[in-house]
Specification:
This protein is of the alpha/beta class. It contains nine helices and eight strands. α5 packs across α6. The longest helix is centred in the middle third of the chain and has 17 residues. The chain is globular, with a radius of gyration of 16 Å. The mean pLDDT is 98.
């Protein structure tokens, strides 16, 4: 296993976050060799400025946190995020559509977003909010998005009643080709859990407790 920092998306998506908080987040990411920072669209440009001449990736969220924005509004978010400097997009799919079994809608929305992002060499992580889905719904979503060559399936926004779980990672991994990666997020607050998620198949960990997790990994 690589150093835990290389798996982490150091995340700050609180609506109360100030500019100085984002600057500090970026400083921590650089100092600890963290893979990426994940910030709201409001702070992409500031993160880009703060991370100049570093290898830290800038990620942002689309349709966050509930995913029921229109496809058109999500595509505008994608365009703006890319224009401001985001290289990875964590996109919340429409959970209402999942619950209503509107598979064609989900496929069409994801295809439009993935095609637009990939035209700009931007990575797409679709957040399925696995804690709110049945196993059958998780599998159905993964199959749709795998067929569209999404880059990652991501478990959670952190806003649902349940975040990442070992069981959901195993389920997601079981129905994805090896070319599609998994991001675990939601409720990851210690190294033991992060390590277990990686062992189960997660390739990336989204968390705000990054520094604590890194520190625990040294013991």
């Amino acid at each position: 296993m690589l150093p835990i920092a290389s798996y982490i998306d150091h995340t700050l998506l609180k609506p109360t976050a100030k500019s100085e908080d984002i600057i500090q987040l970026c400083k921590e990411a650089m100092q600890n060799h963290i893979k990426a920072v994940c910030v709201s669209g409001n702070y992409i440009a500031l993160a880009k400025e703060s991370l100049a001449n570093s290898n830290v990736i800038i990620a942002t969220v689309i349709g966050f946190p509930f995913g029921y924005n229109s496809t058109a509004s999500k595509l505008i978010e994608v365009q703006e995020a890319i224009a401001h400097g985001a290289k990875e997009l964590d996109v919340v799919h429409n959970i209402c559509a999942v619950k209503n079994k509107q598979w064609d809608f989900l496929r069409d929305e994801a295809q439009a977003i993935i095609e637009l992002a990939h035209q700009h060499e931007c990575i797409v992580k679709i957040i399925i909010e696995s804690g709110e889905l049945t196993n059958e719904e998780i599998i159905a979503c993964c199959k749709i998005y795998a067929d569209l060559h999404v880059d990652f399936i991501k478990t959670s926004t952190g806003y649902a009643s349940k975040g990442a779980s070992i069981e959901d990672i195993i389920t997601i991994k079981s129905c994805l080709p090896a070319s599609i990666q998994i991001k675990a997020s939601g409720g990851i607050r210690n190294y033991a859990f992060a390590k277990a998620l990686i062992a189960a198949g997660a390739n990336r960990i989204g968390c705000s407790a990054s520094l604590q997790i890194i520190e625990e990994s040294k013991n």
